Amino acid sequence: MRETWHVNAAQDPVDENDRLHRLYGVGFEELQVPNPERRLFLSLERQVDLLELERLTTAVGWRPRPIRRVRRALCHSLLVVGVWCHDPLLPRLVGFARCIGDGVINATVWDVVIHPAYQGVGLGHGLMAFVVKQLQVMGVEQITLFADPGVIRFYQNQGWEVEPNNQRCCFWYAC
Amino acid sequence: MRETWHVNAAQDPVDENDRLHRLYGVGFEELQVPNPERRLFLSLERQVDLLELERLTTAVGWRPRPIRRVRRALCHSLLVVGVWCHDPLLPRLVGFARCIGDGVINATVWDVVIHPAYQGVGLGHGLMAFVVKQLQVMGVEQITLFADPGVIRFYQNQGWEVEPNNQRCCFWYAC
Ligand SMILES: CC(C)(COP(=O)(O)OP(=O)(O)OC[C@H]1O[C@@H](n2cnc3c(N)ncnc32)[C@H](O)[C@@H]1OP(=O)(O)O)[C@@H](O)C(=O)NCCC(=O)NCCS
Ligand SMILES: CC(C)(COP(=O)(O)OP(=O)(O)OC[C@H]1O[C@@H](n2cnc3c(N)ncnc32)[C@H](O)[C@@H]1OP(=O)(O)O)[C@@H](O)C(=O)NCCC(=O)NCCS
Predict the structure, then answer these.
(1) By residue range, what is the domain housing residue A92?
(2) Which residues form the N-acetyltransferase domain (chains A, B) (predicted)?
(3) CB 3.0–4.6 Å: which of A123, A167, B77, B87 could bond B98 by disulfide?
(4) Is residue A37 part of a domain?
């Protein structure tokens, strides 16, 4: 009986949408991927576990940061986006990006990452398109980011302008 | 009698400091300038009049922005700094800078400007040193900015690294 209820529920699009809402919050979106057995979701609201985020960023070779500082930085970000490999009980974080900014004139995208096992099938593009759309809806005038040499093409292919008017980025580090 | 009281007050360092606090708020600083008849102050708290800010930014050739949007952007900035030419009744805004950021990991400096009549005597350096110090006190790890070709040297001379690791800045515009 219980089994039957589960099977019926999974086929009911209203219930299914409701369940996805509960997992991914308001404004979630599904990403199309080649593998039909995997479902991938973009979420603005699903809470990111900071240890899971650390595993994701160390998987692409970034040095870990103190969890306490990451928590505060996320709290004060304009936008935090997770890419989730769907599981009805425990979705896994396989991508991430966040933005800082005033939400009006300027926003800067930081910490764009897709887990190596999920790269090269369009998730990065989907994530960036989602981020830009969210900032557009807010009405942000200008979005900026800093691209490592290996990913400049990745951003250019999505319509980002590299160094317009010969502007150069300058960095200052605390230590 | 009144005259005398004024003269005495101006010579009393306690009263004088009190008066400067009322004008420039907590954490103000005086900038040293060659002309001994002018006093210049950096302030985090003195309210910037948005029309005065527009006059300042148009004086260096920046196109005006809708006041309503500038107000919202300033409200959501991490730091807003004014450079004021001192007058006991009505200080004039002669310089400006603001930062966006999470206050922990990243901050970006925007809209750095000194009025042309006040350029070349060290105010820009003083303003930037103040901005960096404030962000350091907050504990921000990494500060970034975008420099027009003509001002790259200006930032480099103050210890900013240009395109470390060959990073390039990418821009995306709303219109
Ligand atoms: C950069 C990064 C986020 C890209 O993520 P991704 O999911 O691999 O990106 P995509 O799959 O959307 O695009 C990657 C390439 O695969 C190609 N691709 C897209 N969909 C594809 C598909 N269905 N099948 C095969 N290839 C595809 C794209 O053409 C793209 O090529 P391009 O870069 O020349 O445009 C990811 O490589 C990463 O996390 N890198 C390490 C961290 C990093 O460097 N972050 C950026 C810091 S600035
Ligand atoms: C860029 C800008 C903020 C600099 O402000 P500034 O007050 O002129 O800057 P400073 O006076 O501190 O420094 C300017 C130069 O004058 C020199 N200078 C500093 N103190 C001086 C003094 N007492 N006497 C003579 N020259 C002096 C400095 O060596 C400096 O040279 P450098 O750029 O090679 O380091 C200003 O020119 C400006 O508002 N420009 C238009 C807007 C703009 O381009 N903003 C930056 C956008 S990224």
Answers:
(1) 25-166
(2) 40-175
(3) B77
(4) yes
Which residue has a Cα nearest atom 20 of ligand 2?
B122
Q: What is the CATH number of the domain that holds B62?
A: 3.40.630.30
A134 phi-psi bin (left φ>0, alpha ψ -120 to 50, beta other) = alpha
Ligand 1 within 6 A of CB of A129? no
Which of A154, A168, A173 is most worth mutating to test chain B (most B CB atoms within 10 A of its CB)? Answer: A168
Per residue in B90-118, pLDDT tens? Answer: 999 999 999 999 999 999 999 999 999 99
pTM for the structure as a whole? 0.89
A residues 47-66 near B, CB within 8 Å?
65
**ipTM of this predicted complex?**
0.85
Q: Whose CA is nearest to atom 24 of ligand 1?
A: A121
Number of domains in chain A: 1
Confirm whether A108 is domain-assigned: yes
Q: Which residues of A are catalytic?
A: 155
pLDDT tens for B25-82 read: 999 999 999 999 999 999 999 999 999 999 999 999 999 999 999 999 999 999 999 9
Query: Closest partner residue to B100 among A100, A145, A146, by Cβ?
Result: A100
What's the sign of the alpha-carbon dihedral B167, A163, A103, A43? negative
